[in-house]
Design brief:
Number of helices: 2
Oligomer: single chain
Radius of gyration: 21 Å
Amino acid sequence: MSDFSYLEDLDLEGTIFTDDVEIDEIPDNPNHLPEDTYTCQITEASMGLTNKKDKVGLTIKYQIVEGAYSTAFPFTEWIQVPVKAPGQEEWTPEQIKMQSRIKKHYEAAGFGADEMKGIKPSMMIGRILKVTTKNKKDGDFERINIFSVSPLDDTGVSSEETSGGASPFSKAADDI
C-alpha cells in the first residue's frame, strides 16, 4: 500500500498552479498525445463503408502498450481501401498508393507478402507494432494523425528471430 501522508501537508486553500508548473507547456487539449513513436497493440480492425456509402475503409484501433501513455485512451486510423469501379480494368495510381499504404500496415503487423492475400482485417487484432504520430489541427481541435507504422524493430526482425527464438509477430500480444 502506498503512503499518501504527504498529501496531508498540502495547502488546500492555496493555488493549484504553483511555481513549478509551466502554464505554457500544458497542452490545451486534455487528450493530447505528444508526437512520438509508440509501441501499440491493434485492438480492433474492420473494413466497412463510409456513412455516405461512397468509399470503403479499413479502421484500425491502437492501444499504446509501453511507456507513460500506455494507460491513455486508444486512438484510431482510417485507411481507404481501393475498389475497382464496374468496367475498370487497371488500378489507378491513387488506388495503387492506397494498396501500398495498406501493405505497409500488414508488414508492420508481421504478415509476409506470401500470406497477405489471405489476411482479413480481424486477423490483425492483437498484433504489436510501432506507430509514429503527428498531431493535426482540425479547426479548433487537435487530432492524432498516424504518420507511419513499422515493425517492432525497423528491420522487421525481432531479437528472438535472430537468436533462434520465436517471432513476436507470430502470436497475439497476449501470447508474447
